Amino acid sequence: MEWHIRCDPDEIARYVFCPGDHARARKIADRMDDARLVTDSRGYVVYSGTYKGVFMTACGTGMGGPTVAIALEELAHMGADTFIRVGSCGVLQEGQQPGDVIIASGTFRGGGTANAYLPLNFPAVPTFSVLRALVETAEELDIPHTVGVGSAGDAFYAPREPAFLEMLRQAGAVSLEMESDTLFVVGAYRGWRTGALFASDGAPGVIKPEWGEEAYRAGEQNIIRIALEAMWKIAQADQS
After folding, report:
1. What's 134's domain CATH number?
2. Which of 10, 21, 201, 238 is catalytic?
3. Total-model pTM
4. Structural contact between residues 56 and 224, judged by C-beta atoms closer than 8 angstroms
5. 30 three-state secondary structure
């Protein structure tokens, strides 16, 4: 029995979605067959079910790097080895809007948790096969998307230097969130496969504007569709 995610290992799949939002974990489970609540303990809500015949798990991790790292470690102890973050993000570039789909090709390491695993000069990047599956699936579903580098940090309300944000914009960064740096680095260190995609919850400098709620929710459904189909593709490749 793990310290935080308390359940029977047989209830955890090899293939795991790890949104921060517990409600989004439930939305992912709602698209599975025979999904059930596995556990709700210490801030982790876990569902498991099947999607197109493949056993999958969705774990709502809560916010930030520390909770994601614990989730990955404990789920992997129970047999998981492939993790896709299905999250929300802020955006940086002019023209980005609520509901835009962003697939991470890498992340600026602004958080602290990953530093306990690998030094800062080690890049935070997804597993290429997972990134490719996400991009190909978005293309096949004809869902507009952006592939690019974002930034992740631990302190949501901390002061931000305008010069730092401008540097990120100048470099073409497309997202701001709190977990993918940890996901990618911990996955690399432990040898697990990882990927991440997001729905934009705002426009540059604006978080979840009231006028964009409907578009954001549509984007959230799009990233769930992409993630499920991409994970299914990965599972099919594993069986071939």
Report:
1. 3.40.50.1580
2. 201
3. 0.97
4. no
5. helix
